[in-house]
Amino acid sequence: MSTTTEIRHLIDGRWQSGGGDELVDVNPSRPSDVVARGPGASAADVDRAFAAARAAADGWRRTPARARAAILLRAADIVAAHRDEWGRELAREEGKTLVEAVAEVGHGANILRYHAQEIERASGEVYESPTPGERILVVRRPVGVIGAITPFNFPFSIPAWKLAPALVWGNTLVWKPAEAVPVLAMRLAEALVEAGLPDGVLNLVSGSAAVGEAIVGHPDVDAVTFTGSTRVGRHVAARLAARGIPFQGELGGKNASLVLDDADLDLAVEQVAIGAFRAAGQKCTATSRVVVHDAVADAFLDRLAERTRAAVVGDALAAGVEVGPVVDARARDRVVGALGRAAAYATPIVAPDPYRDGPLAEGFFVPPSVFALPDDDPGELWRDELFGPVVGVRRVDSAAAGFALVNDSEYGLSTAVFTTDLGRALAAIDDIRVGVVHINSASAGADLHVPFGGSRGSALGPKEQGAVARDFFTETATVYLRG
Ligand code: NAD
């Protein structure tokens, strides 16, 4: 029988029960399976978390950077040792397939290691001075107490890529994970505590949006790093801007894959399917729009349809499953609702009925679907981030028209371009306004050692990951130094 974990919060180094409303965390593949339950954090818990983070800030920033990094390295070993166990918990709690979930936990360990090593690089600059006997230095110091608010869809790796640079550069944190994934948040915090993180340096408060509101409005927050939807991110950013508090937001996406007439079609079909259907389409970088050149459109769509029908949907923990459930009933109803409305304006290419009975009816499953969209009013499948295994397709008659359609979105996170013409690939890099460009690979996917983030409606503030991660978690001081 599956166990139910008690939801607990980490405040000032002590694991404790919350004073807020009861949270019930269910397995999206089988919602009768309760993964975790317990009270969420209250406003008073958030206050205590900030008090602890503030009290710990001085000691932590004065701890030598290499000693801070050593804790991350030990935490990485602990995470790696639990990769399979926590991967199973992730698949059960969030709903991505076991293979993807185990990989995410392993990736989390690598992220911790990467940021630990970053502090061995040069961290400042030295300039000549026009004044005799003077040097000018640029030094970095931590920002202070960071509020971190994270989404459900990468419950381990996204928190890791915020917490690791924040901690290694000397900040303390109050972190709120998404309501649907408290267990994986506890696991990451447990690894850091076991690795020797001092009390109060990381505080974990789980709960609903109200806990996020309390973090954002807290008088003691020095900066907020957020990943989530554009709607919530802009709301949070506006509140913080009114108080002059720095904000970093990685937000929503409506990512297109562009298949040109010189593309390797087998490659394009497979990579579009991977981009669209892995994690049940719930990656910020997932492909949800496809733009295909007329000359290859029929052949491409025949093969994509075949590939879509072949995708095995089922319990995230079952072997051989490619598409697990979406995260909760609300997400399923949102996507199924949009698919129902699409019948009025779009042409179904693969559009199975929702799972109303049978083995997939209990879980939050959505059938992978592909629709051809009209040019005059392509509708919500073209415009809105649905966050499900759904693709809307439009045709173009040139590469330039393709670039224009890829740009036809308020979002600008990621894109994939399939072409064998280097000149067109180079033009795509210049002309498509997104933060991540994949040439001949799926739109989803981000390496940990390079900058990650979107443009336009997909981001606000400095990018994450890679060496640039330190930009948000440090502030510089310019020092005019004379003897
Ligand atoms: P969401 O915006 O609903 O929630 C994100 C986090 O914000 C959660 O912890 C939530 O509880 C909290 N929150 C909600 N309302 C709040 C408020 N008023 N004040 C403060 N905090 C609040 O997003 P989600 O459904 O968890 O995640 C999916 C979204 O995240 C998608 O839009 C996806 O594209 C985006 N995302 C972006 C990236 C990226 O790097 N660009 C990565 C992953 C996910």
TrEMBL record:
It comes from the Bacteria. Pfam families: Aldedh. InterPro entries: Ald_DH/histidinol_DH, Ald_DH_C, Ald_DH_CS_CYS, Ald_DH_N, Aldehyde_DH_dom. Residues 15-479 form the Aldehyde dehydrogenase domain. GO terms for molecular function: oxidoreductase activity, acting on the aldehyde or oxo group of donors, NAD or NADP as acceptor. Keywords: Oxidoreductase. Belongs to the aldehyde dehydrogenase family. PANTHER family: ALDEHYDE DEHYDROGENASE-RELATED. This is Aldehyde dehydrogenase family protein. It comes from Microbacterium oleivorans.
